User: What shape does this take?
Amino acid sequence: MGEFEVHRVRFFGLVPAGVRCLACQPRGGRLALARTDGAVEVYNFAANYFQEKVRGGGTGNRAGPGRAAGVTGVPPQVIPGHEARSVEALCWAAGDRLFGAGLGGDITEYDLARLCVARSVDGCGGPVWSMAANGSGTQLAIGCEDGSVKLFQVVPGGIQFERNLDRRKGRILCLSWHPSDTHIAAGSIDALRVFDVSSGQTVQRIMVSYHVQKVKRECIVWSIAFLSSGTVVTSDSFGRVQFWDWERGTLLESHTVSTSAVLSLAVSEEEDSIIVGTSTGATYQFQLLPVKMGSLEKRWVRTKPFQHHTHDVRAVAHSSTALISGGLDAQLVIRPLMEKMQKKGYEAVLRKFTFPHRRLVSCARKARLLLFQFSQHLELWRLGSTDETGKDGEVLPLCRMPEHLLQLKSKGPEHIYCSCVSPCGSWVAYSTASRFHLYRVRYEGDGVSIKKV
Amino acid sequence: MVAPATLRVVRCGGSTLHGARAVFSADSYLLCASGDFVKMYSVATEETLRLMGGHADLVTGIQLNPHNHMQLYSSSVDGSIKLWDFMDGIPIKTFVVGSKLLALYTLARCEDSVFVVIPKHGERDTFQLVSVKLTKAAGQDLEAKELSVVLDGVDASPKRIAFGREGEYVASVKGINLQVYFFKQKQLNRFSVSATKTKSGNNHFTCIACHPTEDCIATGHADGKIRLWRNFYHKKEYTFSTLHWHHDTVMDLAFSMEGTSLLSGGAESVLVLWHNESDCQKDFLPRLGSAIEYISMSSDGALCCTLHTDNRITIINSNLRFSKSIQGLIKSTDVKTGLVVDPRTKALVLNGEPGHLQFYCLQSDQQLFSLDIVQRQYIHQAGLNQADLVKVAFSAQGKWLATVEEREEVTDPELQLKLWFYDEETQSFKLNTRINMPHEDHITDMCFRNMDELEDDSLILVTAGRDCVFKVWVMVEDTDPEAQQSVSWSCDFVGSYHNYQATNCCFSEDGSLLAVSFEETVTVWDSVTWDLKCTFCHPPGKIRNICFGRLTCSKYLIGATDYGFLCCWNLLSCALEWSAHLNVLVLQPDPLSEHIAAVSWLSKESSLFVFKPNEPRPIYIQRNLCKEKIQLAAFVPRDEPEMIGSEKYLWLRRSQLFFLTDTQELMTLSTKSLEERLTPSSKQLAVEESLAVTPFSLLLGKHRRQQSQEDTDLGKLVVHNKHEQDSPAVKELLHTPAHVLPSASFLCPIFINSLLISKENKSAEEVADEVEMESEKTEDDSDEERDVTETEQEDTSPMELLGEMTCKLSKSQEKELRKIRKMDYSWISAF
Assistant: This one.
């Protein structure tokens, strides 16, 4: 074994962006994740949840076992963010097409092969808070700031505006299609509404805090789910998860989960399990369990609590074998359901994604330089050095402190996608989704000058 | 009536209630396993109605017969199951199983079998749940040998097995494992929790409860969590949710009758009501006094009852309101005060709740009241040093109470001496003087000078401390004009002897001499001049106890030493009169006679010696008094001298001797036979039955015989005072149904006559003491209400009769009448 000097790099002040939303591909093995800075990441379940690798532009060339992909550290499938484009909602439609919508008011389709925005359509309703695709993946519904729900037809090569549903005041914060595609449930402030898709009319309006005495603050329906039995599940800012019969407009069950808001909710495909995420960082599972052995009467029971996050859990997803949650603490946690696992193995392990699986640091070996990549700028540092040698594990005194050489701000609204420094340290390059920049760095004594090539 | 030849040791209180969960009967009685007995309490009045004895060892389980709610099964460590008719207190059947029974369960589904936990044959510390077939054969004592094992490897605690909805399954927990057995499918599922050790403790299972209508099991854990298990018929897809409030072990769980709410309790002495199995909706009933051991619900769901570790029973309404508390002798962590008799109420006084002094009424087996001495919030936390009461002394008339509290601190004990004055108006003790740090070190003994005639101004309190001095405290007029009271206490004299630790102090009967023991030496002081009169020493060994002889033996001083010597010194000759080799633990003089009781502890058995100081030969010896170590003893004066047949037991005539064992069971010596003592009511019933021809002839006949009978009537318990017994005419009049009575005009003279006679007997003191009567009257009022509920079928006639006659009765007579009505009416049920 050779000898190594280990540097403790404590000057990389990366602030990872929190997870804003998650979308599981229906009947597929992929998970899309959007961060608060607008970046979108795609994970592949088949590859043990590692971020997808795309090589040479071909979608067929996915990485084999994810373990190998993780070890070798191949570039992951990340669509970098954009200053003007936040992502509030993601959904998969028409098989493997990924759409996102955000407060910019646009609906964006992502090109997963080229890892960039394929096309963008204005929603014409102000900021978009929510988006949902119907069961067959042919239609998209978006909920807008102005209270309108708009339907878009997913056509090859884009989306096409179809119609507006009945518009009422109050932003639509969440949407859910009935699995038979006939109705849409939409959650707003203090109320939830059910639309008939064919007529476009509001067929039911339920005040969620109607029976609560002396309501002082408004109740925000943060998340909604429409089950095939006709039950609408809502989670609200009062910390409740409520089950409604939409046709009668009655409350079936109410579970107070937390004293703070329940922000997110996801239903499994079999509709026997629900995961909710709260603003205290806890997630809870609800299960539909028979009341007695062999009887048909079933009830939703809050079962397992998990506390993996330190901050708000803004997004949850329910895959067939795992509960997935993402929070503002930038962690993505995948909690496998032990009872669905056939055997104990690699799949049955709790996973936490705390760090981005991207190369954000590049190293100039000869010049002893490090280049750090942030979303909007780059930093170049010189490593500290020492004269002494010591035994294994000893902390050596530094004769020269690490030095911050330069900070390079990128131009334009697009975020930096990747960056690199040459081994001699005199060339720095970075690229955004559309442009490539190359800089020459000169070292003059203590000073540093930079010139754009 | 001739007293039987032997003295019997009788348990009379403080028996642990921890054998099993209490059971509510269908008609609002509470049944509770208490030591070897099953006790029946009235939920309405908190009274102990019946004491069912018959088991030879600890009762470990009681369950109502699911097919007859007037019957009760009980199991015991002695290996038998008994079926009781608890309304009459009669054992119907006894099934002998053979091995130790540790828990009992019944199921409505199983017609003729019950479930018990027995130790597994041939293996130590493994237990199994078996079903016992109860044969239907005739006869009282039956063998039940038909056992079939249901579950193996269960825990011995009755809290760790529960039967599910309609007896479909049985669940048992042990360690970190939960096993569920389905009877119909014959399927056994095992689950376990991960054995993690956290800061708050491990997550071992401690108790289990099953939902009455749904498939849901609630388990309590040692780390304070409650888990609700569902879907447990799938080995893999089972699931559980967690409720967490308790910071310490969950001691017991109970579902409400509908299953909508769950009750849990633990060491925090807080009952928690969880609504809808939700973590967020819960209600609390705090400050229940001590750790909750068992929780049980009544079948109509209206009441719930908690048994506590200090032998208290609390009855709680369904809306989580405290309803009643049944408390006998409260078990405290350590009885440091000793057994003291309150001269005023004749109640036994000792440590109760932490920091409290309990006044325990021996006759009714009830706590009279609890006096908060320390007056600080008690915090339930292990390892926390709390101030506790260590010494108590009453003045001769009970007017003054001195208490010493200390906080257990090795280097620097925190001491307080408090003097309490009995306030006649509020009928309670009022703090008069508080002395911080009366001694530098622990106080070892404390006594008042008991001088009856000089009660007020020359009262002296002596405290002996480990700081090598004894101090004399006297009352002084308070000079401070702003002070609320006229007197306060201050130190008058400090005595010491060669810098030895003072260990015991004792006044002679006339109060002229004070004996203080300093390690190996006893010093005798003049209580007027505080001169050292003489010293006695009997090496080797330090003095453990000292006391003066009384009455004719007042010239003797008795001392017991560490190395097993009992010495008697003559104070006139200042010489050792006699000594005996005896390892004396307890030395207790009878205040009313010259007898002294000594309890020795030798080779794991306690022996009792009763002697007079003037003769070295003991009057009475009882070897092997009980298996437990006797900690304390006290002579309690009887209300009236008991007639003792045998010469040998004359020392029991004036007072009764009570012992407290180290398990805090209170025992006494009785000359009466078992049935006489245990069930006064059923005994009474027997007398009535043997005589009854018609109630009317009985009435007249009894009245004629009354005069002669008066003095010899021993069939009644000491509880009932003389004047209560001696008017059977009144009793008959009140107890007989109205339609069989002769006309009221005929009965009236007899009735009045009987009242007059009883009035003659009455002592003058009772009439004089107005305040006492006041208090009794309030008691009587509540008694009256209680009677109405109890004797529904017959209460119309006496009420009417009473209405006619009250105009002629004086106040004291009225009181008399009420007292009589307090007596037990259960014999009515025989008609």
Remarks:
- The first strand of chain A starts at residue 19 and ends at 24.
- DSSP finds one helix and 37 strands in chain A.
